[in-house]
Design goal:
Strand order of the largest sheet: 3-4-5-6-2-1-7
Low-confidence stretches: 251-262
Distance between the termini: 23 Å
Oligomer: single chain
Number of strands: 13
């Protein structure tokens, strides 16, 4: 696939535009050094960047005509040993909003144009510095919300997805080459017994691709967080539980049943994971129009949840509202919470298990006193991750586009197995194997359209 890429020199602010100690303006392109030389003056006035070695840092000033704009350090990196594989200059100036913008203005006046969002990373991809899976990992690193998301993104940035996909593609390519060679030279290369050998290989390939697809659920949770919905009847202590887990008073808590009438969403960091917490209206039959809308929204959120925290008031007998909620869990991951454990109990874990069976953990907590919250957090983590996550050997797919390409690849491999079972000619094997090969190549950026590439990089921040 050939993409259009302008050869002009681009520049942008690569750090946040806010009061800070340091601001960085990045310049990349064929004339990056020339543009930088036009605005840079060494302290003694005798150093020209064009005469300096790559990967060196120089102290001096940025000037706009006769005006000194700022005191700076300038980093010089010549291509192809730079992020974009082009000549790149990074100007480290003081981080004030006005100072950074004035430095950028001077650079733009002297031959660079403003970079588009993600254009530096796009050039790195188009110049072969990184593949598309690594490019997508760059934005994931920037947007990482927790420890696991960051580790997974860094692993992908280092080429974990690329290596896993390339390994599968090499095995597929070997089979394609063997079939084509045998068809071209049947006198010397026999296909006798080959369908049986290919069937074994195809089943192994299908299992490896399926393993990557299955990792996408964990990958999505790492990246986006666990959609966690708190359900219970009115006044069970749902909002108190949310406040206890957040460590601050975010939800209004009163003794009046039905105080929460709409969903309240907050995010918390939990042992390296992100919980997207959703506090909902208490579920009950009500004639109040506003409250009824809140109840319906609560049920909708529960259908979309990764995790449900069911909260029961352990000091009150279960009612029909509680039973309705428990019967509606539908096999989702859930924790059953007996709240108000500081009061005399009217409900026990055995009462809940008689309704739901043994499939859900049951915990006693006191949201008001903060008792049992640490055990709850530990239980949630164990529901999603058994043991420690490894980012050295395990690959996690965190990107919906990549998962879709893997699904396409698996479907093509399954077609190969179907062709073998039907006794079809070897040409059919080759066609579907090539489809699988190309689908996997799309993950790395091969055979993808320019529109898709532009759409991916348009989501990047300016200067990256």
């Amino acid at each position: 696939m050939v993409y259009n890429m302008e050869n002009d020199t681009i520049a942008a602010i690569s750090t946040a535009v806010s009061s800070a100690g340091i601001g960085i303006i990045r310049i990349s392109g064929a004339d990056a050094v020339t543009v930088a030389d036009r605005v840079y003056r060494s302290k003694g006035g005798r150093v020209h960047l064009k005469d300096q070695a790559s990967h060196t840092i120089h102290y001096g000033y940025i000037v706009d005509g006769d005006e000194v704009v700022d005191e700076v350090l300038v980093m010089l990196m010549r291509g192809p040993k730079s992020f974009t594989a082009e000549d790149t200059v990074e100007i480290n100036c003081h981080g004030g909003v006005y100072a950074v913008r004035r430095v950028l203005e001077a650079v733009l006046k002297n031959g660079a144009r403003p970079a588009e969002p993600g254009e530096f990373t796009k050039r790195a991809f188009l110049n072969g510095r990184i593949d598309l899976s690594q490019a997508e990992a760059v934005i994931d690193v920037i947007q990482a919300k927790n420890e696991y998301a960051l580790k997974s993104s860094v692993s992908q940035l280092k080429g974990a997805v690329q290596a896993a996909v390339q390994k599968i593609r090499e095995r597929i390519l070997y089979q394609i080459a063997f079939i084509e060679s045998a068809l071209d030279d049947p006198e010397h290369i026999s296909l006798e017994g080959y369908p049986e050998r290919l069937e074994k290989e195809a089943r192994e390939l299908e299992q490896e691709i399926t393993h990557l697809i299955d990792s996408a659920d964990n990958g999505r949770i790492m990246k986006e967080g666990i959609q966690t919905v708190i359900l219970g009847r009115p006044n069970a202590g749902k909002s108190s539980l949310l406040n206890a887990m957040l460590g601050e008073e975010r939800a209004i808590v009163t003794e009046v049943a039905g105080t929460t009438r709409d969903v309240l969403e907050e995010s918390i960091s939990l042992n390296g994971l992100t919980l997207n917490m959703i506090d909902t209206a208490g579920i009950r039959e009500t004639e109040d129009v506003v409250e009824r809308i809140g109840v319906e929204r609560a049920k909708e959120k529960a259908q979309q949840a990764d995790l449900i925290l069911y909260v029961a008031d352990s000091s009150q007998e279960l009612d029909e509202n509680d039973r309705e909620i428990l019967h509606s869990l539908g096999g989702k991951k859930a924790v059953l919470i007996l709240n108000k454990s500081d009061l005399p109990p009217a409900v026990t874990a055995e009462n809940l298990k008689k309704i739901t069976g043994e499939q859900y953990p049951v915990l006693s907590v006191s949201a008001r006193e903060g008792n049992g919250i640490e055990l709850l957090e530990q239980t949630i983590r164990e529901l999603f991750y058994r043991g420690e996550l490894s980012f050295n050997d395990e690959v996690y797919i965190t990107n919906a586009r990549q998962k879709a390409d893997l699904v396409n690849a698996r479907e093509s491999v399954l077609k190969v197995l179907e062709s073998i079972s039907l006794g079809l000619p070897e040409d059919f094997y080759s066609i579907d194997l090539m489809s699988a090969y190309e689908a996997l190549g799309a993950i790395l950026g091969e055979s993808v359209g320019e529109d898709l590439v532009n759409e991916i990089f348009s989501r990047f921040c300016m200067g990256k």
